[in-house]
């Protein structure tokens, strides 16, 4: 009997020396939860809630927190004021999708706006938040290892998304006459509808330079700082289209870096819709590439019928890179005393370039300056108009014959009668 008592005492000492495994530890071997990280929206995201699209959603996602053994956690998204906020007492909290089981949360603009309104955030006000996710399995609560910043602006005015329709983007440049007021681009887009209670929508067409990086990739445009010029449609901006003449567009780009008519113009364009304090860009931005094909014409007694401004003789463009858009020429037979004048635009008497002195000796680019040019003797002439130097040249050309009949003497060719 004494031996049995000793044996039981030894067993009691053995049991007292063992420790029960703690299954509530925050580690992968206990009934805990493993740390996890956030995914989207990325830190620094700025969201302006559009009252015209209340069902539009923001998607929050994160990696799962793995349970130690078998109990899967539920999740909730929590948000606090970026300055002075405490995740132990969050300003906002939302269970994740699927009653908290999913590693995602789909939150509509309407839901987020209502939550901010309930916290006395004013309409249209900007709120700087930090957000994170908490996982809980009934025993343990673990917060994501990071917190992301999110800036949210509450509902005020708004308008629905819209798309560009025309002109369609092209990969090759269009050729336009930069002096034409009759030819034009027609810009069109779908309408943006204002939110209930918001002012009527007005539009502006925005233009910026299209640029590429060193790898040939297009550089995104910040329209707030990189817009070169704007065009307002008719009806005080209410129209969802605008007819813009070639001349107006050419004059606009010339004032913003493309004064040289020989340069190809590479633009991006979009449309900005405004309703009250709400501004919305079209869903897409289009390319617009064009070359300004400058033309000059000859009008005068050389025509048949004479002085027909609606059917002028088109001059030839000198296409050398340093002369393109600046020098124009033609060859024509003129009788003595024949008068003529250079014109920039077909059908426009006001676009004439005149003679300020002896023919070919005094010329300026002012429209309709001076009188007509003329020649003193009948012959074949090369007429050259150099807009770059503000000069016109009238050079008589003679075609002679050299051959056995005159002894192959290039110094004394035979001229026709």
Tell me about this structure.
It is a single chain. By secondary structure, this protein is mainly beta. The chain has helices at 2-17, 109-118, 223-226, 246-254, and strands spanning 38-40, 45-48, 57-62, 74-81, 92-95, 104-108, 126-136, 141-143, 148-153, 164-166, 174-176, 184-189, 202-209, 229-231, 241-245, 265-275, 278-281, 286-292, 297-300, 313-314, 316-317, 327-334, 339-343, 352-353, 373-374, 379-386, 391-397, 400-401, 414-415. Strands 2, 4, 5, 7, 8 and 9 form a six-stranded mixed beta sheet that branches. The N and C termini lie far apart (157 Å). Mean pLDDT is 86; it is low at 1-29.
**Which structural class fits the helix and strand makeup?**
mainly beta
How would you sum up the global shape? elongated
Residues in β-strands, percent: 25-35%
Number of strands: 29
Distance between the termini: 157 Å
Mean pLDDT: 86
Radius of gyration: 39 Å
Low-confidence stretches: 1-29
State the major sheet.
6 strands, mixed
Helix content: under 10%
């Amino acid at each position: 009997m004494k031996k049995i008592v000793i044996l039981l005492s030894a067993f009691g000492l053995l049991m007292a020396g063992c420790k029960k495994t703690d299954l509530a530890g925050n580690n992968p071997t206990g009934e805990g939860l493993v740390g996890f990280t956030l995914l989207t929206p990325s830190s620094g995201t700025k969201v302006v809630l559009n009252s015209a699209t209340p069902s539009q959603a923001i998607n929050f996602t994160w990696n799962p927190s793995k349970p130690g053994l078998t109990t899967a956690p539920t999740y909730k998204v929590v948000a606090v004021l970026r300055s002075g906020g405490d995740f132990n007492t969050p300003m906002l909290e939302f269970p994740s999708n699927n009653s908290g089981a999913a590693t995602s949360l789909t939150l509509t603009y309407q839901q987020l706006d209502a939550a901010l309104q309930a916290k006395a955030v004013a309409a249209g006000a900007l709120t700087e938040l930090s957000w994170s996710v908490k996982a809980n399995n009934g025993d343990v609560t673990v917060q994501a290892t990071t917190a992301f910043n999110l800036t949210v602006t509450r509902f005020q005015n708004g308008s629905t998304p819209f798309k560009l329709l025309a002109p369609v983007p092209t990969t090759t440049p269009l050729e336009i006459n930069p002096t034409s007021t009759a030819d034009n681009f027609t810009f069109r887009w779908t309408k943006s509808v204002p939110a209930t209670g918001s002012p009527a929508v007005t539009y502006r067409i925005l233009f910026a330079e299209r640029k590429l990086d060193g790898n040939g990739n297009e550089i995104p445009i910040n329209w707030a700082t990189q817009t070169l010029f704007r065009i307002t449609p008719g009806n005080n901006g209410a129209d969802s289209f605008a007819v813009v003449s070639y001349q107006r567009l050419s004059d606009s780009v010339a004032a913003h870096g493309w004064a040289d008519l020989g340069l190809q113009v590479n633009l991006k364009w979009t449309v900005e819709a405004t309703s009250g304090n709400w501004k919305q860009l079209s869903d897409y931005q289009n390319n617009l590439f064009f070359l300004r094909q400058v033309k000059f014409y000859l009008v005068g007694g050389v025509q048949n019928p004479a002085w027909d401004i609606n059917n002028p003789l088109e001059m030839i463009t000198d296409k050398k890179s340093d002369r393109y858009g600046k020098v124009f020429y033609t060859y024509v037979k003129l009788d003595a005393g024949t008068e003529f004048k250079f014109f920039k635009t077909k059908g426009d008497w006001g676009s004439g370039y005149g003679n300020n002195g002896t023919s070919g000796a005094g010329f300026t680019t002012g429209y309709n300056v001076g009188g007509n040019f003329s020649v003193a003797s009948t012959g074949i002439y090369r007429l050259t108009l150099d807009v770059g130097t503000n000069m016109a040249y009238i050079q008589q050309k003679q075609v002679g014959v050299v051959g056995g009949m005159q002894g192959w003497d290039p110094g004394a060719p035979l001229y026709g009668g």
